[in-house]
Write the structure tokens for this entry.
Amino acid sequence: MADITRRLGWRHLRGAPTAHIRHHRGGKLLHDGPGLSFWFRALTAALSEVPVDDRELAMTFRARTSDFQDVAVQATVTYRIGDPALAAARMDFSIDPDTGVWRGAPLEQLGTLLTETAQQHALDVLARTPLSSALVDGVTAVRERVAAGLDAEPRLPATGIEVVAVRVMALRPEPEVERALRTPAREQIQQEADRATYERRAVAVERERTIAENELAGQIELARREEQLVEQRGTNARREAEEHAAADAVRAEAEATRSVRLARAEAEGVRAVGDAKAQAQAAWLKVHEDVEVATLHALTGTRLAENLPNIDSLTISPDVLTGLLAKLGAREPE
């Protein structure tokens, strides 16, 4: 919107750089161009303001596919007015000289023209496309068809409009159809997730089984080594017992040999002593062969007295003394 101020019956217009201003007075074009600033009289001036910047036109419409399914199309058309003079001549871009506001709705007319033209071409391409293909490749097909249709539309150049770009954001079916279409994909995704879960569990079970087998193998190996250890300990104990037994046998044999030797030595000593005693006895007897009996008795008594213990005191009772005297008296007559 142009900026218009009042000064003593005059008006001053200051336009934006993106607005093309056309000023007519008496049928003559006095000012023509973007971003103008000038004074004018409101009663004699005819003003028009044509925007020359790029503008976005969002549109949403419904279409039907070849299999009779309704889809919603969301698109945006970027356009600009390339020939402001032609556009001002074909549409009402005039502004109020006091307020600078458009007297009509030129941009709404342009939006209607562009929307209907784009919708026509989109409906044409979707009417020959099934829903499944439209959901997969429909965005590209609709964009290309709408862009080509707008470029070929003769009314747009005749109105001074240039189409800069066409974008199609979405093609969406009815909510019920969309939910129905999502169900198989969701089921497949769920199946993939379940399969991944099962595979993960299977891998976990396999790993647990491998771990259990490794632990069991370790226990078996440990038991085998313990068995070998027990056998080795038994072998060592048996060997130690055999060595102890052999040592005891050697020791016993040595003791026995020593005992035999001692016994033999003692026997030889006893035999030598006996022989010596026998020889001495024989010699003693031989010495006393010619000795009288009385002498032998005397010697015997002497030897007996030598071997008797010492008698410190001798007590003779009357009875014993009487008997001895009687015996002595009985022997005297002889």
Notes: The mean pLDDT is 85.
